[in-house]
Amino acid sequence: MNVGNAILHRRSIRKFSSKPIPQDDLIKILEAARWAPTATNRQKTRFIVVTDENLLKEIANNSKIVFFRQRHAAQCSSMIVVCIDSDSWIEEVGAAIQNILLMAIELGIGTCWIGAFNRSTVRKLLSVPNSYKIIALILLGYYSEQPDPPPRLDLGKITYLNKWRNPITKSKGTILPKSGPFSFVTKRLIDTSSDVKNSPLYESEDK
Known about the structure:
The chain is of the alpha+beta class. Helix content is 35%, strand content 16%. It has nine helices and six strands.
């Protein structure tokens, strides 16, 4: 899978199989994170790989969006907890996480980026020092189906040329919302697969 297809096929997976991820693949995913850009090459991001079932369940019990527990955090076979030194740039974490997500999809492994969890509990469970911030949990596991892509705003609505509100491309009008919470309700009414195949990033597997 080329980089363009990996970007287009990445999804947030919330149903995982119990099949464990080989350690060699976990190492490849961590290698991808290691090679992400860092400010002045300080390399302050740290990664904790969690595979212990009891730890995964405990972390899942403390991962909630409002009152809803994110149960899929206990279903994944592995989790990467991403931490960064308190005086480092947060942008480094985003680059490392994106590398993790793309390398995982290349290996046929699903991921879900979680930011809503009890950080103090996770800190205690994993013995993370106070000098490090816990930024995100990345769930990893194999999945049986690929969810439909979420609707995305047209390029002309989010990118400008030389000055604000000067669209770089024309944008197609649509009645149904492509962003915000309502887009998840109406996404089945939007042909998102066509949007993927029409993207300049898309490369047919038949080539």
